Amino acid sequence: MTFLPARVHELHSGPMKGLDIVDGHIATGGADGNIRVLSVTGRHTGSSSAHTDLVNSVAIGPDGKVASGSRDRTVRLFDPDASRTYVVGEHDHWVMSVAWSDDGTRIASASEDGTVGLWEPEGAQVTRIDLGYPANSVDWRGDVIAVANGDRTLYLLDGDGVVRRTVPGAEQLLWDVALSPDARRVAWTGRDRCLRVADVSSGDPIVVPAHTHQVWSVAWDETGDRLVTASADGSAAVWTPLGEAVERVVVPAWVRRALFHGADLYLATEDGDLRILSDNGLVAETPDPIKTPVTPESCIHWDPKITDAGYRPRCRECGSSEEPRLCVTCGHIGCCESQLAHGTKHWLESGHPNTVSAEPGAFDWKWCYADDMYVKRVG
To answer: Residue 112: which region, alpha, beta or left (left: phi > 0; alpha: psi -120 to 50)?
Structure first.
């Protein structure tokens, strides 16, 4: 296969963080707080602006209704046919991800408050699973719920929320998880640039360096024969379930999410566009392997010039006051990667390597972008 650009839909005024495609319908969620619904032919069929903050995730249910999770801490349901949006449930912190059960009777939500919620579509809470650390992603297939958790662990639960198995996830933060259509395999990605694939029942994962920057998302195709990853390096990559690289597609923006739909590849980008690429049927040239840098034992970049973020700091770009990051070189305040990653973007633009929490008090952690690690030792 060779994926070539086919068309572009400009849908959001800012990053598109949510994307789902089911039965010829597309749902997107953006940092502008909006949800858009359109057909695969490009006909717009509905929109909702009920969320009061950025939309992190959308999922289309069997009946066409769209579940969504937002930084406003709510799980909502949007019915495009009735132009109605209502709250299904609430968390104590940002809702990072939502997923439907196969039969459409429940919605799972993953939240920064450290819990996974299971909700009925009309708003009754079924149960709440406390995993102790922020949950960034959830997926649900058959009787398996997969959770990419903030303790760098992959959790596999049954349909009632009981933990079946845990898998050491990675050395760094996990961003996304996806179960294969038959729920026999699970794939996950994160900050460490790798794709991991494992059997749900047992065994260690296959680990493949996937991108040159963190990997925001992973998804299977409808057959379970291919995977696609999306990254902040501005590319989407296609893989076999054994982690063999098939093709790499480059676009001029971070790719927040990537999904297959038939012969097409859909990319949700940082600039708010939905980019659609079509398979022309030709055999793609196998991309070169990715080489990820080796984490050093100590940081040679730590040389703080700024130690005080001032009173009640906010992200300079988006104004968020939640979990701000302070550049210790110039004093720039940026939001974290669970939001719009303006701290990371500042490093990419300025080359200033070190950031710390901008909350009042002593630094409880130090991060080096250049070394891609927490600063524990200074060289």
So the answer is: alpha
